[in-house]
Design a protein that fits this description.
This protein is α/β, with parallel strands linked by helices. The chain has 17 helices and twelve strands.
Length: 399
């Protein structure tokens, strides 16, 4: 049999592959699971973004035909306007600086293929969104994990730029970070971003700034690194309607980037999905036209869910930082494992009816951690999930 590609083999399997047998056994017994592992929201999207409103019951024939490969012009313009007005990204114009993808995942892949070559190194701030590393592997680049946000929680005086600079190799071409962070919710403030920007400018690096949670902050406002002097020309900003407007199922995302990057990313897009379905783009456009009332209400709900989860986990023995943004807590089970592997705790959690995401998917430095999404289910069910998790932790103490 012919061999598989090395780049494909470097992409890790799904994060639940090792737990699937336990999940199946729990289901076979008639058990239910509170799904706190998935990065989603239980909220319905804005009314104008829902398919029945955005697409209409009498959808026109154009929705069933090929669409423009560059994306819906009105959507690109709306994304660019949002980038300029909310985040002061100076080079955001719909025609030249926005690429629409089938979700932020696809948009990032197109942009990564536009700037990365085989053998390039990409510094990836950890803990990180797992699919980013898979995307860089898929480009035959080499992701290099750089523990960052977890260290900044422990010591806010650390300099983020210096941490990145210490990891640079002769083949480093780009760096990647998420702010607010998935999975630990850390927000990189202006001073930290200015430090990272200096490193990028001094070393002529591309910057992948994953900003899909930009509107989900609980105090400190989001700052885009692309708004800093000299950075718009080298920054690829990733956005997603999955997180901002509860449209994960619509699969619409975008990158805002310099014109040459967008031109190349569109060519990659043509050769992957050809065009993002027009119906889904209309849904995204409807979301942007709703104003900010929906997002304000969603943020209040998410903050309440975060605070209730933090309170419910008090005294559990788990270590974690209170998320500054995004929709997760990154839980360190080390104190309750007593030297056992994390899988023991996650299997106990499944047995008690709650599912978390294993921490090693977010970086090799986090073998004892797990991610909990506090927006995946309504708050009453979230509270039930925490009760189940506490029971699983208590069972660990009994052996």
């Amino acid at each position: 049999m012919a061999t598989l590609s090395e780049s494909a083999q470097r992409i890790r399997p799904g994060v639940f592959a090792e737990l699937q047998a336990r999940i199946d056994a729990h289901a076979a017994k008639g058990g239910t699971l509170v799904p706190l592992q998935i990065g989603d929201t239980h909220l319905a999207p804005p009314t104008d973004a829902r398919f029945t409103r955005a697409i209409g019951d009498d959808a026109k024939d154009e929705l069933y035909r090929y669409g423009a490969t560059a994306g819906l012009a009105e959507l690109r313009d709306a994304i660019a306007t949002r980038a300029r007005e909310l985040y002061a990204i100076p080079n955001a114009s719909g025609a030249a600086n926005v690429h629409v993808g089938a979700g932020g995942t696809h948009a990032l892949f197109c942009a990564a293929r536009a700037v990365l070559d085989a053998g390039d190194d990409v510094l990836v701030a950890a803990p990180y969104w797992p699919l980013a590393v898979g995307i860089f592997h898929g480009c035959s680049a080499r992701p290099i994990e750089v523990p960052l946000t977890s260290r900044l929680y422990d010591d806010p005086s650390l300099d983020a730029g210096s941490i990145f600079a210490a990891a640079i190799t002769p083949r480093t071409k780009a760096l990647y970070f998420i702010s607010p962070n998935n999975p630990d919710g850390k927000i990189l403030g202006r001073a930290q971003l200015e430090s990272i920007a200096r490193v990028a400018l001094e070393n002529d690096l591309w910057v992948f700034a994953d900003e899909v949670y930009a509107e989900v902050t609980y105090g400190e406002p989001h700052v885009s690194i692309a708004s800093l002097p000299g950075m718009a020309e080298r920054t690829i900003v990733v956005q997603s309607f999955s997180k901002s407007y509860a449209l994960a199922g619509a699969r619409v995302g975008a990158v805002v980037a310099p014109e040459p990057v967008i031109a190349a990313a569109r060519r990659v897009g043509v050769h992957t999905v050809f065009n993002v379905p027009l119906a889904m783009q209309r849904s995204a456009l409807g979301a942007l036209r709703t104003g900010d009332a929906w997002m304000r209400a969603a943020r209040d709900e998410y903050r309440a869910a975060r605070d209730e989860t933090v309170a419910a986990l008090a005294g559990s023995g788990l270590r974690f930082s209170v998320a500054e943004g995004a929709t997760y807590l990154f839980l360190d089970f080390g104190p309750v494992l007593d030297g056992r592997p994390l899988g023991v705790a996650l299997e106990r959690a499944i047995d008690h009816g709650v599912l978390l995401a294993p921490g090693d998917a977010f970086g090799r430095a986090y073998p004892d951690c797990a991610r909990l999404c506090f927006t995946a289910v309504p708050r009453p069910r979230l509270a039930d999930g925490i009760v189940r998790l506490r029971a699983a932790i208590d069972s660990l103490a009994r052996g």
